[in-house]
Structure formats: structure tokens, C-alpha cells
Amino acid sequence: MLNATLIALLVVMALALTRAVLGPTIHDRILAxxxxxxxxxxxxxxxxxxxxxxxxxxxxxxxxxxxxxxxxGVLRYFEFxxxxxxxxxxxxxx
Length: 94
Description:
This protein has 94 residues and is an all-alpha fold.
């Protein structure tokens, strides 16, 4: 049963990577990368359960935190980049 779970997670991760590469918009790509990170955390947890070593769950927690913070950072970057592109110097002059 755990082997089926591992295979299913790897298939979903491959689909997420495909979406990240082929996504039509930047938001689709960021969402796919976030999903890939979440599935990686699940994969680490399943591997820890399979091996019977719960010490590695700390790695999954740290990876989840890094994934969350990095996705928020990338979204903020693209939000400010797009808002600065909308305001041109000609539009701000009188």
C-alpha cells in the first residue's frame, strides 16, 4: 500500500512539474511549484513512515516552511513588478 502511495505522489509531482513548465500564466506556474513543494513534504513524510525513522520529519517541516516563505516572496515580487510596470513616467508627469 505504501508503494502505491509513493508511486501516486511521484506521478502527481511529475504532473505538477509539467504544469510549471507549460503553464500559460505566471500564476499557474507559481501554483504548480507550490503544489510540487507540498507533495515533496508528503513524500518525505511517507518515506519516513516507510523506513520507521520519524527523525526525518523535521526535514519535512523545514522544507514546508521554506516552500511557504519562498512562494509568498515570489508572489510579492511579481505583484510589485507588475504594479511598477503599469505606472509609466509619462503618466506621472503633468
